[in-house]
């Protein structure tokens, strides 16, 4: 299981939780697992999220690996000027 | 709308064109003569990207009507280099990275060439004020000013 | 991705400063920018724009315009795709208004004619009947209960109940217990800040030339930061198959984020489709200000607690961003960047994205971060002043470093904030004497940086030179950086590499040139593509020598046996291999198609000296130093240029630039005359220090540098003004009337 | 748009008198072309007057007064050392109009006829006591500069009338002038406030003065009270304070995108003082 940290604005959509345990080995599985566990997160994830894995911000790739002991944070999707 | 026939000189070559009296020299250069080196940044004389010289005098080509060019001499960025040989300012601008996007560069080169012809030994402040009408959004001007000062020094030494 | 084979020293090409490959084109007028593209038989277009801040469009009568000699076609919203949703709908609504004009300058129709003068005349003949509606342009007023609603139902699920419908997105993050943290503090400072919208201010107006036949096949040339994005959006807005629209990026005359968005390209294509002729569309400068993306304006509340020794005990920020008549103001970035420089036990940040009757905001260099830095770094300066602490030492004491839990959540890997602070402290500027009336300010700044989808191709020529095709428009000399990295890997001269910005038909999808991603992501892609080509070169040598492929290595542009056991062969130069490549297996091309995900964050520390005229309130910037972490500077001169350019834009934002709206909701300063960007005589030389703390996510350690440089100046100047004049300005721009007002209030106690 | 290039001011006046619709005279064009481009004013008739003989000349009369051609550009004035020695304030004020590029084209008369209260050259012209010759269908008349503008964008010139010559008085002994403006940047802005002072000394005492203020009222102001505040003084602190007060009392500014009433009212006093000090110093050095 991977512990996924949500930004606190998402708590309302995840039954009040800001940490969710997900069975996942990739970023894509993290996201699909989150939606499965908390369907309310679908819109926020569709709007675009990045996933920080051990401090590295994954903006798009769903194939990036995630280990059980990885530090995983959901973040709003990054872009720039 | 009736057009007016104009004969003028651009970078030493005589050219003729027909233009609407509302067209500017900038419009004429770009749209009628195909000389797109002179850029339009604002059309109102605030940015200097369209700088040319008219009878040797630095002006914004967006603030001169095409019909006013009759019998005058125009010089643009396309006339700065001699054949394949770049003007020292052009060389120095590349070397010093005095341009990033390059849209203001033609106007700045025309303006600085006019400056150095008038004042071969300008101070940094003189260069900055001379170029105040040439907006650059990329560089913060630092490398432009250095390139101009250094070119001036080189040209003084060479002359 | 795995980054084995990283390299941080022993470079041959990287770190040198050769002339850029496109230099001669750009100093001779030969380079072709957006408005320089022409096609035989092309028409010229002009756009009709709303003079109202908010109005229902009751009727559009194009008959008089169509009757004018030379007019070939007029388009309105009816000429675009229907049934769009999400951001595509937002973009279409912005590109061409539907039933409501949402801001002064909103496009409502467009005309194509045989000359630009006729097009302009015809645009004036389009009759639009409006029913003006109540409007709002200020962020705080747009959130108030009595504010006119820009559009019902625009809010997403993130917005808590009970907020005004103009609040369309909401962000909240942080950790710890801020109230407990404030209780531990010796001093808590809480202040309110406001910043006005500023424009990216690129000197080249948006311009494009489009063709689109009845067969649904089109071509588009335009100045953009990302032509694949233009392709995708135009196809959606016009109902085309994406692959049938080929987009070529011209040279680009500045973007700074503002040319990541699409404004006029679909209009030119719609007119081309209607007239069956190529249509050229160039935006007048006033339209650029009125209808292309300024940044968001903000209203912010910051509260920070500090102990007497300088330790920050808690920090809290509320950031309200107005982003025009559409969702998208980067409130989450403002919030997440705000406290990123500091290691905080207790931190909480809240962001609101608010709609108003202004143009749709677009990204501007580190979107959202400069405003946050202005507010936060001003409060930290105030705390340092009141607790008599050195501003750099205090920042060092709290600085984020590897292993710090970032204010936005994750744990930082290797970062260079401490190194920039140490370099600033050691810089002669920091201890140079000041003249009377002058003050010194410092500030830190942070930006995430970005990787993004990237495809490059590196094709070798028979003579051993290389053609590198990249998909990220070159906005500041990136061709040179790409060529340096390719030269480094291939071991051939820099001059032997020709870098082209390829069109959408030539490479796979490339994300726009944004997020400071070009040198990082296209650079990484270039290195990997070169390594791919080198692997193939080694394979050809191995075949020739009859030894295994892994017994060949690449050195100084030659294939050589990897060791004494591999055999005794003379080095085989690249040109010897490429000369025969047709007969030894075919063309040799290196590829990279992936999404690099290791963009390293970047920090900066700026030092500025400002002088304030107490009689007029006028501020002069007299000395400026930028210290920033570049990870690894590929072309150091161009890195310096990014530092200087960001600082200059920040100076403009701090002192003079602003969107000024009248009571009627119309923009009052849509010219460079009154939208006052810094001119040459406004600025001093801008000193730079390149700090290099390698990014573990790039083979050479590169971190993007384009954006972070605009984050610190706003606060650094506010802090310098505070030191010079003894008054703290909490609203931007710090215009002379505001400074004079502050001085008077101070005199009156 | 009809474009004309008359050979004389009389012809120009005749064309203008007979023209229908909007007529504009073109010399430097730095306002006319901006207004054309920005769709503010599209003239039906445009009369280019710089082909008229003498319009590019700067001439010093035997009595020390000057005649300036109506198409003389700001750059040409700046490059004329003798003119700059006599009337540094007038030359510097004209030099402040726009960029180097604009200087290559802009004229004092254009600056005057554009009718902007913020025009940089005009306060200096008023303070210097410059007059202009107006040519119209019925002949010519001489008019003081301060009587030309009547409001923002408006002048006292009748249909068919145009300015055909500029007369600067002889500098005379122990005189000096100066013009200062406030802008937020260092260049390229429209004046938020402008102040010009022209004065003459006998010994250290000011015997004559004219003070003119820009951008603080619908037209450029000639403020007698401000002049009175320094006449008879050695520009001591009390005189300077009185000058600033008189300037502030005289101005009737507006709040707009470039400045506030409060700011303009305060800064006009500051600039009047600073300009007066420069003019005073110049007069002291002028000698004769």
From TrEMBL, chain A:
Protein name stated in the entry: ThiS family protein
Organism in which the protein naturally occurs: Sedimentitalea nanhaiensis
Lineage of the species this protein comes from: Bacteria, Pseudomonadati, Pseudomonadota, Alphaproteobacteria, Rhodobacterales
Cited Pfam families: ThiS
From TrEMBL, chain B:
PROSITE patterns recorded: 2FE2S_FER_1, 2FE2S_FER_2
SUPFAM superfamilies: 2Fe-2S ferredoxin-like, CO dehydrogenase ISP C-domain like
InterPro entries in alphabetical order: 2Fe-2S-bd, 2Fe-2S-bd_dom_sf, 2Fe-2S_ferredoxin-like_sf, 2Fe-2S_ferredoxin-type, 2Fe2S_fd_BS, Beta-grasp_dom_sf, Diverse_Oxidoreductases
One GO molecular-function entry: 2 iron, 2 sulfur cluster binding
CDD domains for this protein: fer2
Record has rRNA processing as a keyword: no
Keyword Oxidoreductase applies: yes
Domain 2Fe-2S ferredoxin-type, chain residue ranges per copy: 4-80
Keyword entries, A-Z: 2Fe-2S, Iron, Iron-sulfur, Metal-binding, Oxidoreductase
Coiled-coil blocks: none
Superkingdom of the organism of origin: Bacteria
Record protein name field: Carbon-monoxide dehydrogenase small subunit
From TrEMBL, chain C:
Keyword Transferase in record: no
Keyword Chloroplast: no
Location of the Aldehyde oxidase/xanthine dehydrogenase a/b hammerhead domain: 28-134
One function term, GO molecular function aspect: oxidoreductase activity
TM spans (from-to): none
InterPro entries linked to this entry: Ald_Oxase/Xan_DH_a/b, Ald_Oxase/Xan_DH_a/b_sf, Ald_Oxase/xanthine_DH-like, AldOxase/xan_DH_MoCoBD1, AldOxase/xan_DH_MoCoBD2, AldOxase/xan_DH_Mopterin-bd_sf
Compositional bias of kind Polar residues: 1-15
Region: Disordered, residue numbers: 1-25
Top-level taxon of the source organism: Bacteria
Keywords: Molybdenum, Oxidoreductase
Name this polypeptide is given: Xanthine dehydrogenase, molybdenum binding subunit apoprotein
Organism per entry: Sedimentitalea nanhaiensis
Automatic annotation (TrEMBL), chain D:
Pfam families: CO_deh_flav_C, FAD_binding_5
Ranges for domain FAD-binding PCMH-type: 1-173
Keyword Lipid biosynthesis: no
Top-level taxon of the source organism: Bacteria
One term of GO molecular function: oxidoreductase activity
Record InterPro entries: CO_DH_flav_C, CO_DH_flav_C_dom_sf, Diverse_Substr_Oxidored, FAD-bd_PCMH, FAD-bd_PCMH-like_sf, FAD-bd_PCMH_sub1, FAD-bd_PCMH_sub2, Mopterin_DH_FAD-bd
UniProt keyword Oxidoreductase present: yes
Keywords (A to Z) from UniProt: FAD, Flavoprotein, Oxidoreductase
Protein name: Carbon-monoxide dehydrogenase medium subunit
Lineage: Bacteria, Pseudomonadati, Pseudomonadota, Alphaproteobacteria, Rhodobacterales
